[in-house]
Amino acid sequence: MRHPAYGQLRPVSEIASVLLENNPSTMTLEGTNSWVLRAPGAAGSVVIDPGYDDEEHLDLLVAAAGDVELVLLTHHHPDHAEGAPGFAERVGAPVRAFDQELCWGDDDVRAIRHGDVVEAAGLRFDVLHTPGHTADSVCLTVGHGATTHVLTGDTILGYGTTVLSHLGNYLDSLDLLSDSHTVPDGAVGLPGHGPELANLRGTVREYREHREQRLNQVRGALAELGADASPRQIVEFVYTDVDPKLWGAAEASVRAQLDYLNRRG
Prior knowledge:
This protein has helices at residues 55-65, 78-81, 84-91, 167-178, 200-225, 231-238, 247-264; strands at residues 10-11, 16-20, 33-37, 44-48, 67-72, 95-96, 117-120, 123-129, 138-144, 147-153, 188-191. The protein has 265 residues and is α/β, with parallel strands linked by helices.
């Protein structure tokens, strides 16, 4: 069933709008959120995560974004980054990402790093390196008036939890996002999938509690099944509250949890 939001640029705040890509799945929820941001009165825009190399979506994004000054990527997964080079070429804007190989444009276009400040479309974006979902995941904070927006990519989703590659890094990233000096109270989350989050730090706290709960469940599974239990066996023991269609993705998170527990001894 086609989601009613497909093809429509939806304003979320005075500076942020979202175009939902028609690529729903168990991993992408309703689809990928391509974000368009500009300060009031600014001629240009910044586009975050153009999505797949999907001609229909990119045509709509070109029309919606207008004069694009910059494309930013939250991480390398193709549902966020695959369409970036083609989109950027069409609008004549550079692409910047944590991974230099994802950057596109002139030879002097460089990767973004933790602590960098990027200014474009009348806005200031502060870069936070938030690995855990992937090694190159970043969040981008941008303030306007009394409200801080945080573009979270797949680090924090609009609902549900994300798949992990490295749990220790991810817990550190959650700690960073829960720090009021980094993300103030009342900050709004603009995720890569799912609806915006009115209370981002509250969601981060819920994510942290969920991860601790899962770790305890994995410890319990190992005690019950034995230390040599496979990730699949642990998934079937622990993830009974999750749709079996997602168990393949859950195995990746279990591997990350086992690696974390092994490192901690």
